[in-house]
Every structure is written in structure tokens, then in C-alpha cells.
Write a structure and sequence with these properties.
Among the domains are: 220 residues, Up-down Bundle (Na+/H+ antiporter like fold), CATH 1.20.1530.10; 38 residues. Helix 10 packs antiparallel against helix 11, helix 14 crosses helix 18 and helix 18 packs antiparallel against helix 19. By secondary structure, the chain is mostly helical.
């Protein structure tokens, strides 16, 4: 992912007068926006968690994440602050990405969207069925949602490592992963909510209505909406629905269209700039300042709120929130006994086979049926072998699969089995997907 154009433009001007920007800020931005770097940070955090959990200091790993932390009167263990609060920010970003795709992206056109949507549905249903078949009537039966998820960052990271991949395939995988996220969010909201407190849920709905009304009357203060957003999150947390759902809903509420188009800006700002020059020539500072203020407003209005927030939040999510989540959730203790028990665990096999077999089978099969029924069509340069390769890569569950595991399995033994299966399947899917897609791309 390249540095956002607006951020790059700002940095290039700052470089002229700031040594810190020239020596540190610009190189750091260029590094962190290099393709695959954020995935490397996420992977490194998971590896550190595994090493830590299996080291002589493993007791400290379990202890530190359960230390209670109180913020503004709310007392939760650090692990829950990460999973319930910081991950709500991640899902807030996901909500904005979903809306962006629905309004301006691949999912905006039903004809183009039908292929990744069908693939996404197949990639959720078949893994869930495989898991359910292996765990029917057993203690871990309720974990069928774990193998349904696809990790966008890692999947796109693997795809980016392969040369000669059709550009349409990246768009397909991104749209597929977003459709997959929408399904996973629905599953979390409906099937992994144990109790429901309607009074708190009504408060959350009321606050959302207030946000919509304030948007309608033109209130644009971000701090105002941030405060209401925290209220929605807190009410959702108390309602019994997982608090990350609040992040998704709030993300879907953010406008993804700018109020001033580039064309409108060019037309209006040209006259303002001329008036500014005349004011400067007449030494009329007040008039020149008014034009500058008007131009500042116009410039800000050419960027949608979703683009602005994403630009500000993305790096924090990619390099702090997700690595922290991996560090606190990926630590599984391995031993000979653990591996022996996993070999006989239908829960672990359900997750493993769901991600490794169910994902490619479900995605490829659903896409094939959709094309045969003329519901969808393959993009021009994409072939069936590409779809099958992407299906293999989509078996990288990681972030959301680990997240659903934590919701589905309160029992530590079951949770460790699910986490181990997710990590193993994600590693195998990534490696297999890379080599399969590499061979497919070389053969054309």
C-alpha cells in the first residue's frame, strides 16, 4: 500500500523546512507503507506470542493479559480491553471499507459484485458444514464460525508476493474478503451473543439515531461524533452483543463521499485564488485571510470523512492494534501431549479442514455454480485456476478466526485447540497458496 496521496503531498512540503520530517518521518512512512510490512509485523507478534507462551516465562504471558485495568470507571482485564475496545477500532475500519466497496467499489455494481459475493458465501458455508459434520453432538459444536473467516491483510500480502498475477484477481480477493467479513460480523452478532439486555441496546440505538440526525443537520465536529461513538460502544458492551459490532455499525455510518468534488473545487477555488491575489496586491490582509479560510474549508471538503479517518487510523490499526491482538491471542503452549490430543480432537480437525479444504472448495464451487447459472461471470484475465488458487489463500483465517475462537470457546483447552488449528491452517494455506498461485501465474 502506497503512502496516501494527501499525506505524501503534506510530507513533501514539510521536507523543505523540517529536518525531522526529512530524516525520520518520510522514511518511516515509506517503510511502513511498503507492501507486506504490516503483515510482517502481525506475523512477528504472533511468533513472539508463541515463543513467550512456550518459554520458561510462560506464566508471565498468561498473567499479564489478565491484569485488570480501569479507565473512566470501566474495569476490564488488559486482554478484554484489546479484544473489546481496540478491536472495535479495527472493525470500525472494516465497516468503512465495507461501505466504501458498497458505494464506490467492486460491490457497488451487482453484476461485478455477484462473483465475489457468491465466492464469499461458499467460502463461509462449506467450512462451517465441514466443522459441523465433524463436531455434531460434541462439546465443541458451537465453534462452527471459526473456520469461516479470511484474513484480508495476510491474504493480500501473499498475493502481492507472486509476480504476474492479473490485477482483477487482487480486486476479486479484496471484494471476497470484504464479503467474508460481512458474513463473519453477522455470525458474531447473531450466534455469539449469550445474553441480551434490551435497556442498553435501546440506549445504543438512540445514540445511533442522534448521530444520524446530527449528520442530517450538518454538524461536522469529529470530537462530537467520537464522544457519541464511545457511548454507542459502551452501551453495546453492556447490552451483551459483542462490542466490536458497535465499531462496524459506526463505520457504516461514516460518509464515504466528499461534499465537494475535484471539479467543483477547481471551479470555485480558481475565483477565490484570484480574489486572494487582488487582496494581497491591495494589502487587504483581512480579505486575503477570508479567502484562505474559505479555501481551507473547500480543501478539507474534497476528502470524504471515511477517507480522512482511514488515513489517520490505518497505521495505528496495522502497526499497534492488530499486533497487540496477535501478541495477546496467539500464545498457545505446545507439548507432545498437546499435539497427541489435537490429533484426536474433532474441534481441531474441523477448524483445520474447514480452512484448508472447505475454503478453496466452497469459493471455487460457489463461483463455478454462479457462472454456470449466469448469475456472475469471470473477469477477462482471470481463469478458474486463479480462482482455485485464491480459494487456497483465503484459508488464512488468522485475525478474525482467532477472534471468533475467543468468543466461541470459554474453556481454555478448547480455545487452545482452536487457536493451534487456526495458526497451523493459516500457515499451511499461506505457503500452499503462494506456491500454487506462483505456478499458475508462470503458466499464464
Amino acid at each position: 500500500m502506497a503512502i496516501p496521496a494527501r499525506t505524501l503531498g503534506e510530507l513533501k512540503l514539510q521536507v523543505r523546512e523540517s529536518l525531522i520530517t526529512r530524516a525520520l518521518q518520510l522514511p518511516i512512512q515509506q517503510f511502513i507503507h511498503t507492501q507486506g510490512v504490516s503483515s510482517a509485523f502481525l506475523l512477528a507478534a504472533a511468533v513472539i506470542a508463541l515463543i513467550w507462551a512456550n518459554s520458561p516465562w510462560s506464566a508471565s504471558y498468561d498473567h499479564i493479559w489478565h491484569v485488570p485495568l480501569t479507565l473512566s470507571g470501566l474495569r476490564l482485564p488488559i486482554h478484554e480491553w484489546i479484544n473489546d475496545a481496540l478491536m472495535a477500532l479495527f472493525f470500525f475500519l472494516v465497516g468503512m471499507e465495507i461501505k466504501q466497496e458498497l458505494v464506490h467499489g467492486e460491490l457497488a455494481d451487482l453484476r461485478r459484485a455477484s462473483l465475489p459475493i457468491c465466492g464469499g458465501l461458499g467460502g463461509m458455508i462449506v467450512p462451517a458444514l465441514i466443522y459441523a459434520a465433524l463436531n455434531h453432538g460434541k462439546a465443541g459444536a458451537h465453534g462452527w464460525g471459526v473456520p469461516m473467516a479470511t484474513d484480508i491483510a495476510f491474504s493480500l500480502g501473499v498475493l502481492a508476493l507472486v509476480k504476474g498475477v492479473p490485477p482483477e484477481l487482487k480486486v476479486f480477493l479484496l471484494s471476497l474478503a470484504i464479503a467474508d467479513d460481512m458474513g463473519a460480523i453477522g455470525v458474531i452478532a447473531v450466534f455469539y451473543t449469550d445474553t441480551l439486555h434490551l435497556n442498553y441496546l435501546l440506549i445504543a440505538v438512540l445514540l445511533i439515531v442522534i448521530i444520524l440526525l446530527c449528520r442530517r443537520i450538518g454538524i461536522n465536529r469529529q470530537i462530537f461524533y467520537a464522544t457519541l461513538g464511545v457511548g454507542v460502544w459502551l452501551a453495546t458492551l453492556r447490552s451483551g452483543i459483542h462490542a466490536t459490532i458497535a465499531g462496524v455499525i459506526l463505520g457504516l455510518l461514516v460518509p464515504v463521499t466528499s461534499s465537494v468534488s475535484f471539479g467543483q473545487f477547481g471551479e470555485v477555488c480558481g475565483g477565490m485564488l484570484e480574489d486572494f491575489k487582488q487582496a494581497r496586491a491591495a494589502d487587504d490582509t483581512a480579505r486575503a485571510s477570508r479567502q484562505l479560510g474559505a479555501m481551507e474549508y473547500l480543501i478539507a471538503s474534497t476528502e470524504s470523512p471515511a477517507d480522512r479517518i482511514t488515513r489517520k487510523l490505518h497505521d495505528w490499526i496495522a502497526f499497534l492494534v492488530l499486533p497487540l491482538f496477535a501478541l495477546s491471542n496467539a500464545g498457545v503452549t505446545f507439548s507432545v501431549t498437546t499435539w497427541k490430543s489435537l490429533l484426536h480432537s474433532p474441534l481441531a480437525w474441523g477448524v483445520l479442514l474447514g480452512l484448508l479444504i472447505g475454503k478453496p472448495l466452497g469459493i471455487t464451487g460457489a463461483c463455478w455454480i454462479a457462472v454456470k447459472l449466469k448469475i456472475a461471470q469471470l473477469p477477462g484475465t482471470v481463469q478458474w485456476k486463479h480462482i482455485a488458487s485464491v480459494g487456497t489463500i483465503a484459508g488464512i483465517g488468522f485475525t478474525v478466526s482467532l477472534f471468533i475462537s475467543a468468543l466461541a470457546f470459554p474453556d481454555p483447552t478448547q480455545l487452545d485447540a482452536a487457536k493451534t488449528a487456526v495458526l497451523t491452517a493459516s500457515l499451511l494455506a499461506g505457503v500452499c497458496g503462494y506456491f500454487v498461485l506462483g505456478r499458475t501465474a508462470r503458466r499464464g
